[in-house]
Write a structure and sequence with these properties.
This protein is an all-alpha fold and 278 residues long. The chain is 68% helix and 0% strand. The longest helix has 33 residues.
């Protein structure tokens, strides 16, 4: 007889409702503008004229929106059990991030985010990614105008793992391969969008890879690609390879542990109290 595949829907710590989905779409749209404004604003716009100020303005707006999204998701069902797991995973991720800092992109927290988002879903994933980056910044003293961008980018990174296909049916080597492939590509995507957050600050430097507020989109796109190749390609590759290796080596055990904890927590089971017998 062939083994049967369980079709029981996987429990989710946070079920996204209409309000949560709308809030995520809103912050996503604003995030795209905040990261991509150098390619969206024409050279004659006021934003391009204030290239050095725009990242600060967007950072303040993103911080507010990420907080709003977190509050909205919390109202959608982030109960005590989910909060406890969120705290444990965020603390673990924040502690893992400094390991290997400054060493060729060895950042083990990324594989934890991928696996957690996969098991616990996109809503929990976005909240976990954002909170982990915030906690890590407090731990390492990395608080600055870049932090809201990091929180949003990591929220996207972790949420994306929760949106991968087959959360209830796909298991074994196929699932590991899917998660490893996602981790590899998403690690490069994270590095690229974070480059967009810092690249406009180079506008005052005399460099052929710096953002030029007076240049057109094709010229600035070429400058940005050259900037990524020159400054972050090696680091992003190290992050991607580290994520793949840890996912393949530690993934099976961690996935089982997360799924076991999710089942035992029974996030979607309400707590009932029985009246004492007379």
């Amino acid at each position: 007889m062939s083994p049967r595949t369980s079709t029981t829907p996987q429990s989710r710590a946070v079920r996204l409702g209409p309000r949560s989905t709308a809030a995520l779409l809103l912050v996503g749209a604003v995030g795209v503008v905040a990261f991509g404004w150098p390619f969206l604003a024409p050279p004659s716009s006021q934003i391009s004229a204030h290239a050095q100020d725009a990242p600060w303005l967007f950072a303040g707006l993103l911080a507010l929106l990420v907080a709003v999204v977190g509050a909205t998701i919390s109202e959608s069902g982030l109960g005590p059990k989910a909060v406890a797991m969120l705290g444990v995973l965020a603390a673990t991720g924040a502690a893992l991030r400094p390991i290997g800092a400054g060493t060729a992109g060895i950042e083990p927290m990324f594989f934890l985010m991928v696996l957690s988002g996969r098991v616990l879903g996109p809503g929990f994933g976005f909240t976990l990614g954002s909170l982990t980056m915030f906690a890590s910044a407090l731990l390492t003293g990395g608080v600055g105008p870049w932090l809201p961008f990091q929180m949003l980018a990591m929220g996207w990174f972790t949420m994306g793992a929760g949106l991968l296909p087959g959360p209830d049916r796909l298991r074994g080597r196929t699932e590991l391969a899917l998660l490893a492939a996602y981790g590899f590509l998403a690690a490069f995507a994270y590095g690229t969008v974070m480059n967009l957050a810092g690249w406009p600050f180079m506008g005052a430097l005399a460099s052929n890879i710096a953002f030029d507020a007076h240049a057109g989109v094709p010229a600035n796109l070429a400058r940005f690609v050259a900037y990524c190749l020159a400054t972050s390609l090696g680091w992003d590759l190290g992050r991607a390879v580290c994520t793949v290796v840890l996912t393949l080596v530690l993934g099976p055990a961690l996935l089982r542990a997360l799924r076991r904890a999710t089942r035992r927590a029974a996030f979607e089971t309400g707590v009932t109290f029985e009246a004492p017998q007379a």
